[in-house]
Request: fold
Amino acid sequence: MRASVRGYDRLLKRELRLNIKKKKEIEIVVDFRESDFKHLCGSQYFEDEIAKLKMLKSEDFYKDAHDQGEFTTKIMGSAKYSNYKDRVMLTGKIKNILYGKYSVYEYKVMPGKRIKADFFLLGKYQGRETYLFIRKRRGEDVYGPVSVFFKNDKLHVSQHYEYNQRPYTTKHKYCIKDSD
Reply:
């Protein structure tokens, strides 16, 4: 978990700017915050077996993960951890995904899926396809990351998020550092 936090640290104070186009051009600005880490790494899947995890503020969870604290230790010791360790690892590798080739799609809710997002990026990490979902932040003009995971190649093609849709044309993509 600590390696994942260190990788995610490299995204803080950075923005991803995407200029995408289908019929009209849209600029999407994605920023990365400590408060996004808790959900990105899948901590919600452990809330039923780790008391007080749900009550822990996102920023406090980030600090706990950074220091390999009580909650992080419990998550890594959980029987469920092996099911989600790839997601934890990918959270720290988002920068690697963004510096590679990827396509941008509008997210269309699929039956049985609970992700709340506006767009997703389909990229690769170590040769495996990955999804990074983003959603507009409430009351802001920027987007934030909400989920990242490997594509499940065992699913029928019709169950893949990008099924039956064309990606946006990506005109420009770049990361900039904030002035903070």
The beta strands are 14-21, 25-31, 103-106, 119-125, 128-136, 143-150, 169-177. The helical segments are 2-9, 34-40, 58-66, 70-77, 81-91, 94-98. The radius of gyration is 16 Å. The chain has six helices and seven strands.
